[in-house]
Amino acid sequence: MLASGGVDAEAALADLVDVSRDVEAAVLLRDGRMAASGLPDERAEAFAAAVRKIVAAAEHMKPGEEAPLMRLDARVGGKALVIVRDGDRLAAATAGARATAALVAYDLTACLRAVETGAVAEAADAPA
Predict the structure, then answer these.
(1) Could you give the domains of the chain?
(2) What is the pTM of this model?
(3) Which of 5, 34, 50, 106 has the maximum number of C-beta atoms within 10 A of its C-beta?
């Protein structure tokens, strides 16, 4: 999938996984639909469905209704889950227990922006 003026979502996701030391699995969603994944189709769809449910639950629980959920970090079963939103796009990744959520969120945000602007990050581990 190619965003207007951006890079291919699959290429941006592949770059994310290559340069981010912490990301183990990731998906990109646009308007709630799969835009890219490095996982086999069945696992990707299951991960995307879980992300949609988690985001919906978090949206329901957050205080105030004006601002949408922009970032969610969770630790479950020795893994980290990080989800970021940029407009109608979501990026979600799992990472190891020692991952720094802020760095993973930075990497995911850079990936989403690369799809939108075409700027693939040179160094995903730059400070946020």
Answers:
(1) 9-117 (3.30.450.30)
(2) 0.81
(3) 106
